Amino acid sequence: MPRAAQRKSKKENSDALDIRALKEMSISQLTEVAKELGVEGAAGMRKQELIFKIL
Predict the structure, then answer these.
(1) Structural domain count, the chain
(2) pLDDT in tens, 13-31
(3) b/e for 9-47, b at 16 or more Cβ within 10 A?
(4) Phi/psi of residue 46, each to 5°?
(5) What is the model's pLDDT at position 12?
(6) Model-level pTM greater than 0.85?
(7) Which residues span the domain enclosing 33?
(8) Helical ranges in 1-55 per DSSP H
């Protein structure tokens, strides 16, 4: 497998783990993470929106 494909594959795997971890968090936990990352309007977002903005 070419190196570029290997790097992409590893990134996809780490993203998948991040998504799973974020999905397991409560909305209040996600809101806190989003605020730490400087996401504006995090308090009014739904869970899926928070996950999208965090990623």
Answers:
(1) 1
(2) 455 558 999 999 999 999 9
(3) eeeeeeeeeeeeebeebeeeebbebbeeeebeebeebee
(4) -80, 165
(5) 47
(6) no
(7) 3-54
(8) 3-24, 27-36, 47-54
